[in-house]
């Protein structure tokens, strides 16, 4: 096999794995939307909060790794409950625009808290996955990317089973459809929305482990959430299984853009490609590739 095809196959597989990880962040958006009809623009800031908690317990308090992760996940459960109780619960039943603006305000609140608590300087994130590469024939894949991709697939499969195959998951979905109807069926809207925020915060914490492993972390790293936004809109804000598929399109497309076009565009095409793809798809399918097409009768 020639060097060209080896390099092309390498960048394609890395694009697939990266797309799966973007799909994981995308799922964090979808969980909140499917349980409360809330599009959370502050998902990147929540992800960084989870990363900082892991950093605090592991690097600053010198807890064992398993205990650091457990403590960080517990803190994120509390964060999710606090956000839902203090900000989102009073907005139950309000217009979508109102809740969206509240999540934009949440961006600045979380960024400010991050700077106050941990400062604005970069800090080295712990090495959760071992350094090095995994050899697959002539290919060498970054270990953290490979392991993160596999674990992400497992987590998304479990979440799909929860929402699509269990009674409790269907109840959570019913809440996002209509609060009044859900309440008339005996479903607690408040508990369902709270559960959505908790699960989303936990998924964001795992995404922080994968994306920030052996990297530097500061409050600006929350841009990861915006980078995943095209995947959310491309796949459809209601579709759990559409998230990894849309992630694959964005990941592989971005990798190919970097491979073929970046040398001629100063490295910019791979950065704008996800947004170009998103706009093209939304012009054809406004609800995304796999989003629900809602028909209203008047």
Task: Summarize the structure in words.
The chain is built from twelve helices and four strands. It is mostly helical and about 300 residues long. The protein has a single domain, classed as ABC transporter involved in vitamin B12 uptake, BtuC (Orthogonal Bundle). Strand 2 and strand 3 form a beta hairpin. The model has no long low-confidence stretch (mean pLDDT about 85).
The CATH architecture would be: Orthogonal Bundle
What is the overall silhouette?
A: globular
Topology-level CATH name: ABC transporter involved in vitamin B12 uptake, BtuC
Helix content: over 70%
SSE pattern: HHHHEEEHHHHEHHHH
Main sheet: strand order: 1-4
Summed up, the domain count is 1
CATH class: Mainly Alpha
Largest sheet geometry: 2 strands, antiparallel
User: What structural class should be given to the helix and strand makeup?
Assistant: mainly alpha
What gyration radius follows from the Cα positions, in whole Å?
A: 20 Å
